[in-house]
Amino acid sequence: MQELFARAASLLLGNEVDAAGDHDARRILQALEYASESGNRIDSETANRAHLLIAASRFARVFELASPDAPSLISFGAQFDPALADPLHDGSPMVGVSGVGLTLQHAFQGCIGEGIEYLSQLQTGTDLLLKPGVDDWAEKLGPKALELVAALSERRVQPERALSWCRATRLADGGEVWLPADICLRRPPAQRDFAPPSPLSIGSAAGPSRDAAALHGLLELIERDAAGLWWRGGQLARSIPVQHEAGIAAEALLRQLRHGASVPRRTWLLDITTDIGVPCVAAASCRADGSGFAFGLAARPALEAAVRSAILEMCQLELADAVVATKRRERGDDALNAQDRIHVQRAAIDADQCRLLQPVAEYAAHLPLHATEASVIFRLIVQRLEQLGIETFCLDLTRQRFAVPVVRVIAPGLQLEPSEIVTARLQDAIARTGGGATYTGGVSLI
């Protein structure tokens, strides 16, 4: 398959391939709906697709999975060696990624894009990091960022060693700042100043353009903030009107996804939008008796798009749960890793009894984001965050080796989920409600 992906990329770019390979490569392009209609002209979309195929050719494995609960879901998985990014990571364990969609194209792009995102975050030997002069940069950071830096400094493995810093851009004015390197890049364990308190994937994204990647990363931060205030903060979710176009679209999508499933699942929607106003949705599902709780999260400029993305992610998690159940059945509990155990604990929640999974009969106010260009939507959301006193920073992590735009967005004032750091936003939510653990027993969502 690796060789076939490479030949398909070559064909897409208009290069010659041998007669035998041409047929198979063309079939790959047709299956992914990548057949070029622009003749010999290589536009940005075609180039991006070719780069995805080339990346896939370098992965150790790319495979397809079938979901018993959503037979119409298309899912790809892949594994790769982190040393693809740089020899600094020789000897690191293989990394797995996945992607889902209603078409082969969307699932493939989601999977390979997630792999490129991970690889692009890995530190390389040419990345410029700063050691001394920490105090010189502190005055350029706002209060929330300074609080984060202070919390990270306390987590240093060697307290006497100065932090390493990475260059970033402050989005409010385009000014240059420096942030702790270990929340910006995936560094070899021996070089880390501290263990990152939350997954570095949160706020990072690959996309067909830099603007698209940046918007996707920012939306993920807002999604995880909403999830944290809901699940750990105890903020009750709101309803989505059945007659709303988002609710109608959800019903149609679920009928398509669930068609042919042998065991029915109940599915419903929760609006977990916060004071930011960007539509955030949690899609939830369970078996008829309330067991097997699974969920999906999404923040998007429009409620309908958030609903659609949340449902697809929910189906992806249902598939992951099925894989964990198979591992457990065939090899026992000792075969489960830490993430598998979180899956098992979360799926054991009785969805009918958990108050956080029952939406209240009121509706959230959503920020009007009527623009269509990613760059415009991105600026509008950044401005909204500024109004709430939340700084945002951006790093362009695009690597020439992969040639796919990758951007990391950092917003220290937002609550990440999961995260070992509790922000003022989460503290305030817990103080108002008593916290989500009242309903969840402290079981982790992610």
From TrEMBL:
InterPro entries reported in the protein's UniProt record: YcaO-like_dom (IPR003776)
Pfam families referenced in this protein's UniProt entry, alphabetically: YcaO
Protein's recorded name: YcaO domain-containing protein
Domain YcaO stretches: 99-446
PANTHER family: RIBOSOMAL PROTEIN S12 METHYLTHIOTRANSFERASE ACCESSORY FACTOR YCAO (PTHR37809:SF1)
